[in-house]
Design brief:
The chain is α/β, with parallel strands linked by helices. It contains eight helices and ten strands.
Length: about 240
């Protein structure tokens, strides 16, 4: 995307509309369950249920549209662990499943074993669960082929519950740090791809503008109109000077 194309991205919706669309559910601090594609996942308290935007990533990994087969894959904000489990079933070479929230990482590890299988690896896949603030605890030079992130990019505070903020409305500081760390640590392998979800409940122009300023090239991989004013973009970003 060039500056003109970035300027064509929609501005954030009105604050009251953003807040109304993102009101947290009251069951966050309870034990729940989640079913997707015939698989059952346990959802401990404080761990968020995946929504429709997360399923945009899950389904594309399952369909090989986001191709992780034989590749090093980082599932950022792993949460419940659905995308990590799907990547294991699709034959990723190595999965780094990272979340800042320890209970989410435990849930990811539990659900991975439950859906994919027990043991340290399955059919050559190495599974690495990480409690990490973005890439802070990643091993040196992991050389990531594929990265996915559905960040808490909502631009308006919708709750003062820290678990809601962490999952929904941390905003630009998280997305800016994500692209800055990826670039400064040169974490992408040559030809590596980042799949990043954001909507017009966030500052799309600022987020993608910062990514481009950090050396990434952004493409709109998919655009979904929910017919309620929200436009959700799945961006594919590359960094041509990755070494």
């Amino acid at each position: 995307m060039d500056p003109h194309q970035i300027a064509q991205l929609p501005p954030p919706l009105p604050p009251e509309q953003i807040i109304g669309l993102n009101r947290p559910k009251v069951d966050l601090h309870t034990l729940r369950s989640y079913t997707w594609n015939g698989w059952e996942f346990d959802v401990p308290p404080e761990v968020f249920l995946p929504g429709a935007t997360s399923r945009m990533i899950h389904q594309r990994i399952l369909d090989d549209d986001i191709d992780v087969r034989g590749r090093v894959y980082a599932a950022m904000g792993a949460g419940l662990g659905v995308e990590a489990a799907v990547a294991g079933l699709r034959g990723a070479a190595r999965i780094l499943a990272a979340d800042v929230h320890p209970a989410s990482v435990r849930a990811t590890e539990h659900n991975y074993r439950r859906v994919v299988g027990a043991g340290e690896s399955r059919q050559g896949t190495e599974f690495v669960p990480l409690v990490s603030d973005l890439f802070a605890e990643f091993p040196p030079e992991p050389r990531l082929d594929v990265v996915t992130f559905n960040p808490p990019a909502v631009s308006q505070p919708v709750s003062d519950d820290p678990d809601v903020v962490r999952n929904v409305c941390a905003g630009r500081p998280v997305t800016d740090a994500f692209f800055t760390q990826l670039a400064e640590r040169d974490l992408l392998a040559p030809g590596g791809q980042v799949y990043f979800v954001a909507s017009n409940t966030a500052d799309l122009r600022g987020i993608i503008g910062h990514a481009v300023d950090s050396g990434f090239t952004a493409h709109v991989h998919h655009l979904h109109d929910w017919n309620d004013g929200v436009l959700t973009y799945l961006f594919r970003l590359t960094r041509e000077n990755a070494k």
